[in-house]
Structure to design on (122 residues):
């Protein structure tokens, strides 16, 4: 059974940093493109960042480019999202997801975590 378990969310002041983690179970992590998405109340789930199987290719939403860094440790079956210079508009539930390739569309992702709340106070 595939499980993606996010952690690291919380409350942070604007300008601060958080690091999200996503532990993967039940799949061949190193053969999966991985992504982070987020969903604010009343809004659709939006793409944040994606990373290729080997971690050599990354792609970011314009809204987080230069502030967020996606990375992975295939030996630990873990995906990360380092979030810096956080803004109030970054407040959302953050989800990790597994796909066959790195992709920006939710439709390419087969497996999803339960999400972790990130709240940025201004």
């Amino acid at each position: 059974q595939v499980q993606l378990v996010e952690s690291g969310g919380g409350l942070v002041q604007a300008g601060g940093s958080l690091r999200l983690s996503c532990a993967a179970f039940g799949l061949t992590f190193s053969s999966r493109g991985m992504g982070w998405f987020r969903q604010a109340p009343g809004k659709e789930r939006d793409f944040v960042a994606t990373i290729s199987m080997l971690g050599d290719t990354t792609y970011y939403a314009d809204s987080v480019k230069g502030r967020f860094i996606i990375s992975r440790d295939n030996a630990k079956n873990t995906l990360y999202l380092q979030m810096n210079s956080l803004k109030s508009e970054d407040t959302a539930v953050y989800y990790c997801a597994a796909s066959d390739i790195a992709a920006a569309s939710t439709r390419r992702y087969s497996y999803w975590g339960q999400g972790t709340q990130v709240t940025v106070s201004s």
